[in-house]
Amino acid sequence: MVKRIVLCVDRDNDLGEKTGIAGPVIGREENLEAAKALALKDPEESDANAIFGAVSLHDSLKQSGEDVEVVTITGDIRVGTHSDKKIAEQLDMVIARLHPESAIFITDGAEDEYILPIIISRLKIDSVKRIYVRQNPNIESTYYLIVKALKDVKFRSKLVLPVALLLIVIGGAFLLPVLFRLKREGWLGIDYLPAVGIYSILIFFGFYLIFWAYRVIEWLGETVNSFREDIVSGSLTLSTSILGSIMIFIALIQGYNSFNASNSDIWIRVLDFFSGSIWWIFIGIWIFEIGKVLSVVVKKGAFSKTFWVTSASLVAVTITIFGAIGIIKTILGANVSWDPLVVLTIVLGVSVNLLAVSMYTYLKRESISEERWRH
């Protein structure tokens, strides 16, 4: 049990990804070894400097007679919900083990400060210290900075996505008219082949950039491994995933039938496709969520209360989209005789969404109160 901890947070789990060291890392020697291992793997890694900074501050406080311990917790490379959930779990483990009264938060930049609310909800923060690395100006050439940025998954996704979408839009805008004309008139001659090839390459390269930026191949590999584990362990997630996928497939069929059944112009037929498939898509996604909840119940014996929030949010989004499609069809001149019902649908969707927000706020406050009572 200590009075205060020096807390370093590696939100995107560079420590685990590059060295294999799992969080939480508790203790001076353990953190020192972790920082050394990370610095040896990647000398440019700012998280290594943050851990060194946390150890240095720990030593200073220790020399002044304070009861203090240094701790590093890690998130996940999938920054966001996944990483923040792991950070919360590890912080709960640290609090249960050390029972600190407060913490000094060490960060290497603005990214880690997104998780400050998670820490504050569980532990009092006395101070926030930022660790910056001094660089040699001669090293910071444009080429060096670009190469370094492209190695960063978080920055890469933000930088590459607009370029990829632009390539896809340009390629599609020029290729689709040619394909429609080809379907209508037949073979157009060899003169069109270079244009078709160039625009196809633009579209292909755009999708390649998206796959590369968001690590889609790695994600598919993880999904396959997860399915293998589900098959071996007899997990309910596999069955519900298959059933959910069937519902999505049915949604596409229903949308296609609605599209073909309409004699209106192309935009209204596209809206008919979505209105015919939206509820089946909702059922498919909801079945996915049921599988996740049942899997947690079987493994941990605990039912996630946020399931009801997720369900309410799905219903709200589906109702709102369904109503919005009706309004757009009315504006475009479709024969939609249920205008008042469309407006009521929008109002109902917004109301259910407000209910979901209220439920989430209540559950969050209840969870924070329970954690404070425990500690």
Description of the structure:
The protein has 13 helices and five strands. It has helices spanning 14-19, 28-41, 46-63, 81-98, 116-120, 142-151, 153-185, 193-213, 216-233, 236-261, 266-300, 306-331, 339-374; strands spanning 4-10, 25-26, 68-74, 102-107, 124-130. By secondary structure, the chain is an alpha/beta fold. Strands 2-3-1-4-5 form a five-stranded mixed sheet, sandwiched between helices. Helices cover 71% and strands 8% of the residues. The protein has a domain at 4-130. Helix 5 links the parallel strand 4 and strand 5. Helix 2 (28-41) runs antiparallel to helix 3 and helix 11 (266-300) runs antiparallel to helix 12. The relative contact order is 0.06.
Care to give the gist of this entry?
By secondary structure, the chain is α/β, with parallel strands linked by helices.
